[in-house]
Amino acid sequence: MVTIYDIAKKANVSAMTVSRVINKSEKISEITRKKVEAVIKELNYIPNNSARNLITKKTKILSLMITDIGNPFFTSVARGAEDKAMQMGYQLLLCNSDENFEKESKYMDMLISTGSDGVLIAPANDNSKKNMKKLTKHGIPFVLIDRRIPDIDCDQVLSDNEATTRRLIEHLIKQGHRKIAIINGPLVVSTARERQQSYIDTLKIHGISVNNDLIKESHFRDSDVTNSIQELLNLPESERPTAIFATNNFIGMNTMKILYRHNIKVPEEIAVVSYDVPNYTENESILTVAEQQAYNFGYIGIQLLIERIEGAAPEKARKIVLPSEIHLRASSLNQRD
Amino acid sequence: MVTIYDIAKKANVSAMTVSRVINKSEKISEITRKKVEAVIKELNYIPNNSARNLITKKTKILSLMITDIGNPFFTSVARGAEDKAMQMGYQLLLCNSDENFEKESKYMDMLISTGSDGVLIAPANDNSKKNMKKLTKHGIPFVLIDRRIPDIDCDQVLSDNEATTRRLIEHLIKQGHRKIAIINGPLVVSTARERQQSYIDTLKIHGISVNNDLIKESHFRDSDVTNSIQELLNLPESERPTAIFATNNFIGMNTMKILYRHNIKVPEEIAVVSYDVPNYTENESILTVAEQQAYNFGYIGIQLLIERIEGAAPEKARKIVLPSEIHLRASSLNQRD
DNA sequence: CTGTTAGCGCCTTCAC
DNA sequence: GTGAAGGCGCTAACAG
């Protein structure tokens, strides 16, 4: 391994001078700098960050804790995070919690040990509060994205769940629907709670009574929603929903697939609206969706994080709410319109 | 920051003993181990990897260099890589080269500096050879996935491009096609070359003359293939293709979208087959595809890499070829079948 | 089984 | 502008 001493010897300077060159110190004469740089290049020297970190306590490594990189929403988040991190000279450590607090905790210890300068995190659920406290104890800044944690005050990049859900539900109501079901993620996740609350509030505002049989708590993972849908279909005619609100992409995709499999016409028999369904295939999508700014969750999140790390952020925690865009498509539009 | 000395003092042992407990050394009495572990827990001690790495030269960090995490193929690779890495106690640094050698090189320096124990890499193109040499010079093992590099002998996990392409093309020939176009990625990428060669060979074997007007070199990024397709459509009736072979997912998706936009019926006017198109939406796909074992590229790749790092691999480089699965669908099936 | 000594590669501090 | 000394937190090598 080539060290600064090797460079120093060959360039006839002290190690300290080499260090100054590497760190782009101003107080170096043009001549010695050129000389040192030449040797660095010649010997293919690359600084050893471990040694550096030991002193500076900075690794230039950020951790991205998401629930699943396989979820297209988080894939975009990751891409945004990585673009900004790279641009600012940071590297990104990838962690998938799989919506699981224990797995998240394990990663947390690893990333503290590694010496992450900061963490961008979409927490698994409300339990993650413990992990946030741990980060704070270790003096590691973090930014929450997508999901908030009760009583945790920190920089956040969130979605306008209340407004977007309301618009989605009001759209269904305008289309004549009264029996609207919701297939949701677990209520220990803030986004699930917020979307459900807005769903309930919107129905009430429009004088529609809330039927608990139409509220299904499922998962945000790419899991089976067959049971939830079967239960909805088994409801007596008078209760059976004419529309379904899917609160994330996996739920939305799988709901559509199951309805097709049951030969249920969308939207004639059941209309469907969903959060976040990407159009990654050859077909034009027919699904009405609320598209969140996934890329910006990552991009802006990393920006806030780095500002915080580098002391460029205001003391007060910042909360950024990114609006979603609703795409109205066939899955929720009446023929007669 | 809590150090081993804090633990040592409080537990009335030497720092060395604490170090042994952390590293699960056998030569520690049950009693002192318990005592030390208690203090570690009490003080919330987490080892400083930077200090550790400085001595051991091991970081337990692996780098994953892919061209774009946004490409669903690589998303699966990443997920497989991460699962195996986590299982083996390693963390994963994410790098997107964007099919760009310069960007890849920049990451390469960063990851060497950080001290990656190894690199799993889908190289940007043949130029990446320089980066492989650099890794070798720094004694960092790497495993090539998906794409090979001429004259680089190392562990590899590759796809059966020759056989799968042949089956795809023979399927089209069986369907009666003689004018088959290929829209390919850049030929500086090994997979593009292999698929193109197999396309040519298969045509020849079946006595079909190769028409260079039907061979289009495009990109593997999510870029525009409009021009390529337009050129194909502008061909005189006698040359115009009746089938298109798209060599990756983005090309496949975009080809389908453009054909739809041109109101060209698939497969009646033009049949389409593609590599790797995921079905991430609510619709059932109609596209005939060769599905690669993306997850296993990552999972097995990391396994080979860790074996290599930990000295558990045979000296001779291993080459693993994962077969693809062809899904025949409407986009390439004649009505009359 | 446990402790002592030395040093990993670099940067901080303080001289010159 | 440049250099010398010391130490970051930890573990290898050795001693007992």
* Strand arrangement in the largest pleated sheet of chain A: 2-1-3-4-5-11
Order of helices and strands of chain A: HHHHEHEHEHEEHEHEHEHEEHEE
- Which chain pair has the greatest contact? A-B, 58 and 58 residues
What separation lies between the terminal Cα atoms of chain A?
Answer: 71 Å
Report the total helices of chain A: 12
Strand residues, percent of chain A: 15-25%
Q: What top-tier CATH class of the largest domain in chain A fits best? A: Alpha Beta
CATH superfamily of the largest domain in chain A: Response regulator
Main sheet overview of chain A: 6 strands, parallel
Number of strands of chain A: 12
Q: Which structural class best describes the helix and strand composition of chain A?
A: alpha/beta
- Ranges of chain A where pLDDT stays below 50 over 5 or more residues in a row are none
Spatial extent as radius of gyration of chain A: 25 Å
The tally of domains of chain A stands at: 3
Mean pLDDT score of chain A, rounded?
95
Please name the CATH topology of the largest domain in chain A.
Rossmann fold
Overall geometric form of chain A: elongated
In the CATH hierarchy, what is the architecture of the largest domain in chain A at level 2?
Answer: 3-Layer(aba) Sandwich
Oligomer: homodimer
Helical fraction of chain A: 40-55%
Keywords (chains A, B): DNA-binding, Repressor, Transcription, Transcription regulation
Organism (chains A, B): Mesobacillus foraminis
Protein name (chains A, B): Catabolite control protein A
GO molecular function (chains A, B): DNA-binding transcription factor activity; transcription cis-regulatory region binding
